[in-house]
Structures are given as C-alpha cells and as structure tokens.
Amino acid sequence: MVSQITKGIKISVLTSFEGTYFKNHKIHFAFSYEITIENHSKDAVQLISRHWEIIDSLNNMEIVDGEGVIGKKPVLKSGEHYTYNSGCLLASPYGAMKGYFNMINFTSTKKFKVIVPTFKLCAPFALN
C-alpha cells in the first residue's frame, strides 16, 4: 500500500493483478486498484475531478481526465473516508499510475489538488 497526505487529505492505494486476456489480437494485463480518501482536515471537502497518468514498461502512456470517480463526486466531512475500486489495462505486465484529484473546500470555497502517489502495477510472474 502507498499513502500520501496533501492539505489534510490522505490517499491510500492497494493494487491487484486480475489476469490477462486477448483483445484485438493483443494480450492485455488487467489490474484493479482500491483507493481510500480520508479527510483529516477540519473542513468538509468534495472531490470534483481526477487526472491520471498511466504508463507501462513498453513506455506507452495514457492520460485520463474526468469528472468525479466511478461516476460519483463524494463529499467528505472532517473525519470521514470514501473508498472505491477501479481498474486499468496495460500492454505489458508491469507499469504504474499517478495523478491527482481536484477538490473543493466548502469552508473557503477554494479548489485544490490532492496528489495520488505513484503506485506500481505488477503481475506476480513479472517479478524476479
């Protein structure tokens, strides 16, 4: 698990290899990840959008931007947490993701970025 705190918001990530399959005559490596967002600040906040940079060991990079996470824009009061699961496909058995969440502080009405630390995606058979 990797974790990082930005402006009182803690992001923790767990990853898992889900298997391989063929699509469009190419092998794909499927990974899932679970992200927990914990509000350690004194103010209520809302996640409004996300930015991902996904890279594999073949140096393929994909940028993903979008509203919310898994179709939701969770509001977290002080002391609350929100956990969700998602996934991605890579063209190789090893890669990584990093990014950030754009959030808004309801007390100050200011928007801010919360860093999602780089997390590795690795099929067990790819390890030494």
From TrEMBL:
ApaG domain: residues covered: 3-128
Superkingdom in the source lineage: Bacteria
Record-level GO BP terms: error-free translesion synthesis
Signal peptide from the UniProt entry: none
SUPFAM superfamilies linked: ApaG-like
Matching InterPro entries: ApaG_domain, ApaG_sf
Alphabetized NCBIfam families for the sequence: PRK05461.1
The protein's name: Co2+/Mg2+ efflux protein ApaG
Gene field: apaG
